[in-house]
Write a structure and sequence with these properties.
Blueprint (H helix, E strand, L loop, with lengths): L2 H17 L3 H11 L1 H24 L2 E8 L9 H12 L5 E6 L11 H16 L5 E5 H7 L14 H7 L3 E5 L5 E7 L16 E4 L7 H11 L6
Parallel strand pairs: 1-2, 1-3
Antiparallel strand pairs: 3-6, 4-5, 5-6
Length: 229
């Protein structure tokens, strides 16, 4: 029996079953017997969207790529930050700033799968050398510190900027005796300096092989400059 005939018989059989059910029974039946079909459909659709995004991005120049944990008060809105920073640097047509504020932190264990996916995204972008920086809570920084090579921020920042921000940096002495300034507190950034009473500490850190280190240094200078600049 060919596929069209099999499909026709299956369709008629399912339609006959459903015709004898109430609306609630129909929904329960479909969700129970076709849940994997829906999952497969969502997976294919997700792959399609990722492919479209990758194709669109391949036609543009990425200036900066960052992952952010936004807080409950929306102090780190990725799209707004990308727009304001793009205006500051005079972003041109075809240039994009990829900021994603969807990093999820789950300290209470209520959504472990989502939190694990967020951490996996950090690892994936670092592994593919596409991530420039991450802004997130101290707990995530502590998790990655020591496991992944991090950039020492004094390597990319101008001397005067580095000295001004140095008191807000975390550092450690490496095996060769040099000092690695691997994270920068955001408490005095334009996003938090006037927030008042922020219960958690947020840090910026960059992977050792950040692909747009020069632009990252410029972004940090902007992030810690007065809001009207």
């Amino acid at each position: 029996m060919q596929f069209p005939d099999k499909f026709t018989r299956w369709y008629r059989s399912e339609r006959q079953k459903l015709s004898k059910m109430s609306a609630r029974q129909k929904i329960s039946y479909i969700l129970y017997y076709y849940k994997f079909h829906f999952l497969a459909l969502f997976l294919v659709f997700g792959i399609f969207l990722l492919g479209m995004q990758a194709w669109q991005n391949s036609r543009k120049t990425v200036l900066l790529d960052g992952l952010i944990t936004n807080d409950d008060f929306n102090r780190f809105p990725a799209q707004e930050i990308a727009r304001e920073y793009g205006d500051f640097i005079g972003r041109r047509k075809g240039e994009i700033i990829l900021l994603d504020d969807g990093l999820y932190i789950d300290e209470n264990g209520q959504a472990a799968e989502i939190a694990s996916a967020s951490r996996g995204k950090i690892i994936a972008e670092i592994t593919t050398h596409s991530l420039d920086f991450t802004i997130t809570e101290k707990s995530v920084l502590d998790e990655f510190h020591g496991q992944l090579p991090m950039m020492s921020l004094d390597r990319i920042l101008p001397g005067d900027t580095f000295e001004a921000l140095k008191p807000d940096m975390l550092s450690e002495t490496q095996d060769d005796g040099s000092c690695c300034y691997y994270a920068l507190s955001m408490r005095n950034s334009r996003f938090l300096r006037d927030a008042g009473g922020v219960p958690k500490e947020y840090y910026l850190f960059a992977p050792l092989y950040a692909p747009h280190a020069g632009e990252l240094a410029r972004f940090i200078e902007w992030a810690f400059s007065p809001v009207n600049s």
